[in-house]
Design brief:
By secondary structure, the protein is α/β, with parallel strands linked by helices. It folds into two domains: about 5-135 and about 345-415, FAD/NAD(P)-binding domain (3-Layer(bba) Sandwich); about 135-335, FAD/NAD(P)-binding domain (3-Layer(bba) Sandwich). The protein contains eight helices and 25 strands. Strands 1, 2, 5, 6, 7, 8, 21, 24 and 25 form a nine-stranded mixed sheet that branches. A five-stranded parallel sheet has the order 10-19-11-12-15. Strands 16-17-18 form a three-stranded antiparallel sheet, with no helix packed on it. Strand 6 and strand 7 (about 110-115) form a beta hairpin. Helix 1 (about 15-25) crosses helix 8 (about 390-405). The two termini are about 20 Å apart.
């Protein structure tokens, strides 16, 4: 087998496939190497009731917009996987599954890739593996009693995998808030450590908030023009849900229904978890962000002269008692750690990263010639790591590659499965 390609794409998710589609249109021979299987993260790192938080109509993979019957709905996990599978088949993506890329190094003007399937050579390499690489556990996890089951959010499937008893969720960003809701709706008694994650309303003044923001051009804002600049890449996602047709996640409402809320987790001592006295501050901050988004929509409606129904301002449904309160672990049978991931590009041997190991790039074009990144949050716009905008980023990189490639050999795509 000739394992020398003008372009090797690492990662078989929506980013890698979007890149493959654009290279296919330009007749640039390439291959997509996927460590596990197509759309693996969607298959295995999402819970049973997972669904998108963005409407289906925002699924705009290049050459393959959403093809279902519910554009204003929110695809469930298995529907997302099926959508990606149909996309790969639509252009016969040259995908090889079950191939782990162990190291990428410079070789001449190109690259050598050491993989579980042998050596590959490439003139260009596109790294499309996102930045959620290794589940993060805080140091405190190792100190906790052995009887407590500890599960990272990436491995959570449903309440049925957990022992009977009360469940603590640590982290209130998008995954943590939705998992807390999932457990709560399943009848579990839930404790939630609430951080500084913002929230957003699902619907406002007659439309999904996403539709308003789309009209306002919010999703076309680039990282260069964002008020936070590159710091936007470190922002926590707003919590909201597409479950049951979409709704707000209001933690205050959950508290009224019996969910126990706490501030940030600080430490462990003598059978108790210590928390910060910042629950009120964090809830108020999340509400303030939601209201700020609504205010911007109000201004847009007024500016455009749009006839939209009025809506009263949000009034907090519940207020916490002042002071920090500890979490007694005697009744806690399981902890879900929704505290994020470590980013790990250590397998790429190239001077392409900053002191924190994050890629140095401009719109996905690395500072190291011939190396590209795709699918990272805010690589260029809000949609860069999502179905909505990853295709535009892939198109940009494909143009760059076509302009600089040493050779671009036309070839028929073939699907090869090495996962068996």
């Amino acid at each position: 087998m000739n394992n020398h390609y003008p372009v090797v794409i690492i990662g078989g998710g929506q980013a890698g496939l979007a890149m493959s589609w654009h290279l296919t249109q330009k007749h640039i021979r390439h291959i997509v190497l996927e460590r596990h299987q197509l759309a693996w993260a969607w298959r295995h790192q999402r819970w049973d009731n997972f669904c998108l938080v963005t409407p289906n109509w925002q699924c705009r993979l290049p050459g393959f917009p959403y093809d279902g019957s519910d554009p204003n709905g929110f695809m469930l996990r298995d529907d997302i996987v099926a959508y990606i599978e149909r996309y790969a088949r639509s252009f016969n993506a040259p995908l090889r599954e079950g191939v782990t890329v162990e190291q990428v190094t410079q070789r001449g003007e190109g690259f050598q890739l050491r993989t579980s399937a042998g050596e590959f050579l490439a003139d260009r390499v596109v790294v499309a593996v996102g930045n959620y690489h290794r589940p993060r556990f805080p140091e405190i996890a190792a100190q906790l009693p052995k009887h407590i089951a500890q599960v990272h959010s990436a491995d959570y499937k449903s309440s049925r995998q957990l022992p009977e008893g009360e469940v603590l969720v640590v982290g209130s960003a998008q995954s943590g808030a939705q998992i807390a809701e999932d457990l709560h709706l399943d009848g579990r008694r839930v404790h939630l450590c609430v951080g500084s994650a913002p929230r957003v309303s699902r619907f406002y003044r007659g439309k999904d908030v996403v539709e308003w923001l789309e009209q306002m051009g919010h999703y076309r804002l680039t990282v260069d023009n964002h008020p936070l600049g590159e710091d936007a890449r470190r922002k926590t996602n707003h919590y909201v849900t597409g479950r049951d047709g979409g709704r707000d996640i209001d933690l205050r409402a959950f508290a009224l229904q019996g969910m126990q809320l706490y501030g940030r987790l600080l430490g462990y001592r003598e059978g108790q978890l210590l928390t910060a006295d910042d629950l009120q501050h964090n809830l108020d901050g999340a509400d303030a962000t939601s209201q700020k988004i609504k205010d911007s929509i109000d201004a847009w409606i007024a500016e455009q002269g749009i006839d939209a129904p009025a809506e009263a301002r949000y009034q907090p449904l519940w207020q916490p008692e002042p002071g920090a309160k500890p979490i007694d672990l005697r009744n806690i049978s399981a902890i879900i750690w929704a505290v994020g991931f470590h980013t790990d590009f250590s397998w790429i041997d190239a001077p392409a990263f900053n002191a924190n190991g994050y890629p140095r790039h401009t719109r996905g074009v690395s500072v190291h010639p011939g190396l590209y990144f795709l699918g990272l949050p805010w690589l260029w716009t809000w949609g860069s790591g999502r179905f909505e905008g990853v295709g535009e980023d892939a198109e940009w990189l494909a143009k760059h590659i076509a302009h600089h490639a040493a050779r671009a050999e036309p070839a028929e795509n073939e699907y090869v499965n090495d996962a068996r």
